[in-house]
Amino acid sequence: MKAIIIGGGIGGMCTAIALRRCGIESEVYEAVKEIKPVGAAISIWPNGVKCLNYLGMKEDLRAIGGPMDFMAYKDFRSADTLTQFSLAPLVQHSGERPYPVVRAELQAMLLDNFGRDRVQFGKRLVNIEQKSDSVTAFFEDGSEAHGDLLIACDGTHSVVRKSVLGYCTERRYAGYVNWNGLVEIDPSLAPANQWTTFVGEGKRVSLMPVAGNRFYFFFDVPLPKGLAEDRTSLRADLTRYFAGWASPVQQLIARLDPETTNRVEIHDIEPFSPLVKGRVALLGDAAHSTTPDIGQGGCAAMEDAVVLAMTLQSNSLGIEDALLRYQNKRAERVKDLVLKARKRCDVTHAKDAATTAEWYAGLKQESGERIIGGMCETIRGGPLG
User: Which intervals of the chain form a coiled coil (predicted)?
Assistant: First the structure.
């Protein structure tokens, strides 16, 4: 059995490694000549960590993961702590730690594990063709790839998705813009082992520790789509949007590097049930494009990869049957994650001002038990417990 994998990002590389672990050959084709991860960092929660452990990268992940032991919310003006709590109950309940990691370092880890020289870069897919016993991928440069199945890990703008669904999907603007990047850890900004988030006015400023004595930071602001803003206006834009916010926020704006800070309009795609058609399967953002509000986008792709590989290995009624079993195991899970993220997005970014005000007030009475309970519920849905 040979699989064609379209896309060399997180989902594609995890899939290739998972298939190899299950004794299944694969070829990976990536559209760009050099992968430049979108976003500065990613939080890998215990369900994703367990997938990477299963794929043989337990120690490699720990080497690039940040020491996130606590979580806190702070008032946007005064910087007073609304709630602060240990993440130890999450670790104890789930059996793993969360690891915030730099996206580029995660991507490098995956490529090194699989073998960079085995990924074919500069291969932009233009079409696929299925037969009763094979799949062919056609690339922009005129080349072709032939396999027994094709796994589309080609992201939110997936070329393959339409051939599976039979229609084009529309991306839905989630209503806010996110700026993200990396800065050196400084205790005057936030504790070095804590995920710290300033909240107010439907906005967020967050600092999360990653390896190398760095914070991953992000700013969220509800804004109209398509504003004429870029790196040249970035610091001035953030200074305007966060006028009156607490000193650590102002320090962060002053210290960030506009040249390495990303500005992203956040979207998702309405969940859909068909994840496969014949010998073709969608995986990762191609199958379930989500907002980052519960930190499960990358973790869901890792789960997909593990489930797909295990299903192909453990079922013997043919490839099409195995892919349908993959779909049955994943469709409701990923729909739930997309809708949970959308719900959290709306609360956090003041889609309804009264609901968000109620959330702010509730944080002052939060012991951490409710938040960790919600995290554990999400994590429990993963394939490895």
Answer: none
